[in-house]
Design brief:
It is built from two helices and six strands, in the order H-E-E-E-H-E-E-E. The chain has helices spanning 2-43, 107-113; strands at residues 65-79, 87-95, 98-106, 122-132, 135-145, 148-151. The chain has a five-stranded mixed β-barrel. It starts with a helix and ends in a 12-residue tail after the last strand.
Length: 163
């Protein structure tokens, strides 16, 4: 009888041990799944950035102004907080330091004024450095191409162009 009691006690301890192992295995499996998902998101280019709460001129910092020269590599139009949620016009500018995203103005304003840029254009941009969605960029205040200067914003970042 004492042997049966000992076997039952061992069985209960074994059952508790099995449950603990199962729970621990489950927790390790869940942690592994989270890590795999995070790595896949990062590899696929999905970033984890704070949402931009400011828009338009509020993103322009006159103290962060600079001048950069380069060659237009590509023109891109996409929704952007600099264009206050509208479809914005952007240049990908090849500089000695790398490719820089230059925020211009809403596409509708660029079109209504007939402003256009083409790959290969050599330009000089005066604007404020900004970091949006994990990318370094510049909000253009003025762009000079040859003897033509286009003034987009005042010194505080307010868009001067209207449709």
């Amino acid at each position: 009888m004492g042997v049966l009691f000992t076997d039952a006690a061992e069985g209960a301890e074994s059952s508790k041990g099995d449950k603990a192992v199962k729970i621990l295995t489950l927790l390790y499996g869940m942690a592994f799944a989270v890590v795999v998902c995070a790595v896949l998101l990062l590899v696929l280019g999905i970033g984890f950035h704070r949402p931009v709460t400011a828009q338009g001129a509020a993103l322009y910092n006159p103290a962060a102004e600079g001048i950069v020269k380069g060659v237009v590599e590509e023109i891109q139009d996409f929704d952007c907080p600099v264009s206050e949620g509208e479809l914005g016009s952007h240049l990908m500018l090849k500089t000695p330091e790398g490719v820089l995203q230059v925020h211009l103005a809403p596409v509708r304003i660029m079109s209504s004024h007939g402003f256009s840029f083409a790959p290969g254009d050599q330009i000089e941009v005066l604007g404020a450095w900004v970091r949006l969605a994990g990318k370094n960029g510049m909000i253009a205040r003025e762009i000079t191409r040859g003897n033509e200067t286009i003034i987009f914003r005042d010194g505080h970042g307010q868009l001067l162009l209207v449709q």
